[in-house]
Amino acid sequence: GAVVSQHPSWVICKSGTSVKIECRSLDFQATTMFWYRQFPKQSLMLMATSNEGSKATYEQGVEKDKFLINHASLTLSTLTVTSAHPEDSSFYICSATYNRGAETQYFGPGTRLLVL
Amino acid sequence: EDKVVQSPLSLVVHEGDTVTLNCSYEVTNFRSLLWYKQEKKAPTFLFMLTSSGIEKKSGRLSSILDKKELFSILNITATQTGDSAVYLCAVVKDQGAQKLVFGQGTRLTINP
């Protein structure tokens, strides 16, 4: 149980285009989903927390107009990187919890984004 | 500012050796500490530690938390090449939605 999927697993795009990444909880309802970014040989940095049906809460320094998060259902959250630039190239990972107070987060397999 | 610091950052040992990975933290509103194993993709959950002094075990892996000294250790005995991975320590903050603050990770390499 507690499987989280992400799509796509990797994407290459041109600078200036927008990229959408999907995160799905496959066998449970995820009231809360988290989006992280991981640069090479660094740890995971939380970008934002999203609760189903409400606006995402962004961490300090993360531009909400650049990284659009939508959590429209209990099994799906999307992250759209708008007008991507090479410095946005990174590994993006989502995680999900069963409920708002749950401590264990289940991670998706990640999406590797390369912006040329 | 919240900090989670892992040591060593990198460790190379031979198969069969025992390793100890360290995680110290300075975090407000501490709720629990989690250990994850990350191979090529997303982290997989290993342990959640909430109380001091209670060892959690899973096969060759074990972990313990010291809330007075603000650290945790992860032990792996009789290491195997499949244990090669990055081990991440994360602290859960109690702020409504549970936020994780991750350490930098320890890259463990097990040579045959």
SSE topology:
The complex is a heterodimer of chains A (116) and B (112).
Chain A: E1 4-7, E2 10-13, E3 19-25, E4 32-38, E5 44-51, E6 57-58, E7 67-73, E8 76-81, E9 90-97, E10 106-107, E11 111-115
Chain B: E1 3-7, E2 10-14, E3 19-26, E4 30-38, E5 44-49, E6 56-58, E7 61-66, E8 71-76, E9 85-93, E10 99-102, E11 106-111
Structure overview:
The complex is a heterodimer of chains A (116) and B (112). With 116 residues, chain A is mainly beta. Helices cover 0% and strands 52% of the residues of chain A. In chain A, strands 2, 4, 5, 6, 9, 10 and 11 form a seven-stranded mixed beta sheet that branches. A four-stranded antiparallel beta sheet of chain A has the order 1-3-8-7, with no helix packed on it. In chain A, a hairpin with a 2-residue loop joins strand 7 and strand 8 (76-81). By secondary structure, chain B is mostly beta strands. In chain B, the strands form two sheets. In chain B, strands 2, 4, 5, 9, 10 and 11 form a six-stranded mixed beta sheet that branches. In chain B, strand 9 (85-93) and strand 10 form a beta hairpin. The relative contact order of chain B is 0.34. The model of chain B has no long low-confidence stretch (mean pLDDT 92). Chains A and B meet through strand 5 and strand 10 of A and strand 4, strand 5, strand 9 and strand 10 of B.
